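Hi everyone, sorry if this is the wrong subforum. Our group has a chain we'd like a structural model of before ordering constructs, and none of us has done structure prediction before. Sequence below.
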Amino acid sequence: MPELDGSIRYVKGFGEVRAKAMGDMGLLTLRDLLDFFPRDYEDRTKIRKISELLEGDAVCVRAVVSSDVVTAKLKKTGRGLSNISSTRVFDDTGVLALSFFNQRYVGSALSKGGEYVFFGRITRGKYGLQMINPVFEKAGKDGKTTSRIMPVYPLSAKVTRAMVMAGVDAALSAMERDGVKDPIPKDIREKYSLIGVSDAYRAIHKPQTMEDAAGARRRFAFEELLVLSIALEKRKERRLSGNAGIKMGSVDMAKFWDNIPYEPTEDQVSAIKTCISDMMKGEPMGRLIQGDVGCGKTLVAAALAYFTAKNGMQTAVMAPTEILANQHMETFSAIMGKLGIECVLLTGSMGARERREALDKIAAGKGSVVIGTHAIIQQGVEFGTLGLVIADEQHRFGVDQRARLSKKGENPHVLIMSATPIPRTLSMIIYGDLDISQIKTMPRFRRPVRTYCVGEDMRDRVYAFIRKLVSEGRQAYVVCPLVEEAGDGDERRAAQEYSDYLRDEALSGLRIGLVHGKMRAQDKDDVMKRFSEGKIDVLVATTVVEVGVNIPNAAIMVIENAERFGLSQLHQLRGRVGRSKHESHCVLFCSSDSKKARERLAIMCGTGDGFKIAEEDLRLRGPGDFFGSRQHGIPELRVASLLSDADIMLDARETAEKIMRDDPGLLKEENRALSEKAEELMVKAARL
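Answer:
Right subforum, don't worry. Here is the predicted structure as tokens:
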């Protein structure tokens, strides 16, 4: 038998072909199989009476075969001639039909009058309840396939459950022989009532009861979150140690505040003071400013850029799109220009001469605030004295891009801004190596956006309402989820087609503009500029307007096929209106009859709190769809759920922080295995 880290090709009954098929799934060694956990279980231990069966149940039935098995040929399929074998079984409460497709052996395996245990899912057939392709064995046997809890593994076309289970058996035997280190110290296992690692591996692959499986899953969820938390603590520690950060001096901020056109909120002032305190410590700051749409994060960024400039250093502001970069340039320039601080824009669409002039200013340190897209992290961009890095909408960049920007200077301070409200458990994972500040209060001039979910019958009224608002001097957004022509039979209009329809028919006489992701950057910017100058009444757009675009005069947003967007994305879109003293509206057109879709959209109509919406989005869609965690250098969780394991997450974080306080280098013997796992995770994360 191979060792745990040996190739699975040497497992008895395997060989090159099976090893290749399993290797394609990432299963190369017995240890890989040991960590290849079931995604579900079939509880075949409970026998149900036929009269108790319900459609959709996956159950065991002990019953007698009442008739001979009849096999009939069906029509020819792509895989050849198919056949169906059928019979009926009964117990003392009722009768159940059985059907088997392409299983000729059933005729000889089942005998009339014999008693068997059948396991399968109950469906409704032409003559009542039935089971299709159940597994079975003669009643009274040792229960190899029934009368036990069977693990359900993710499989492929070439890898069967039997193959995985055979490999897992070999892996468990190797574990018993070689042993495995438990990364969770004994005192922590006892504190949280967690089973040992060997018992957990046996229980998760071969549980005797569903309680065994649940206990194993809980233990591995805690381990996964503990290892991740330790890795994040290590990442944070390395950022703070190693090379010293830039220690900045005190600055009189009065002149900055005098040039702000409105009174800042308490949260804005608090966030600015906290960041300034961080930047004066001599350690590299790593802080996330998290706030809802329109809460005023840009003001925080501008204040810190001013503070950095007064310390004789540069600030780099990286935005995810050219539209947002240009908008930041306008906002920062309006403030900094009055204060004698020069801003420089650097984007990919700039001409050669314009770009060269920008690069010269950046290298000479003349551009105190450098604003751009990913162009500012490319080769050839050299900063004179980079002191602060600000990444706006961090979830659109990823850890690697953030790190590349930081390397443009000597351990500059890093500020991350996100307008995507993130549930607490998710932010603890994604931003676990950063300190977090939240801006919850909104500026006084921001008004709640009235939101409605409507059907096709309201379309004419919505168009009439747009006309009314435009006649009052306001502007409108119309957002479409598609750019190109939709597929056959799909009535959802593409953005181009829809803008033509609005211009020529529904909103004829109004000035209609169009912006979408496939346009050239310059063309997009030209349209947005005309919209911001009031030369366009209605802007038809895709989600390129989702983040950051600031047109205070826009008072209504209409979102087509709103059911196709996630709640958090809808909330971001809605944040483009309600940015002035005028009352604003968001209309969600729903073309789905689904009750679930309507319930989701009702959440949008019921609250403007982005954090509540984010929690609902996480609950409904799961963290994978919600945020795309792979973009952040954080591997996907295999066992733990950020939705159902919030309490475990908090316990794991608390435990990790205590371990790192008591043993910063993880040098104690009981922490060695945990340290090794955390290092492995950090190496893996660096590849994402």
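For your construct planning: The radius of gyration is 31 Å. The chain is about 40% helix and 20% strand.
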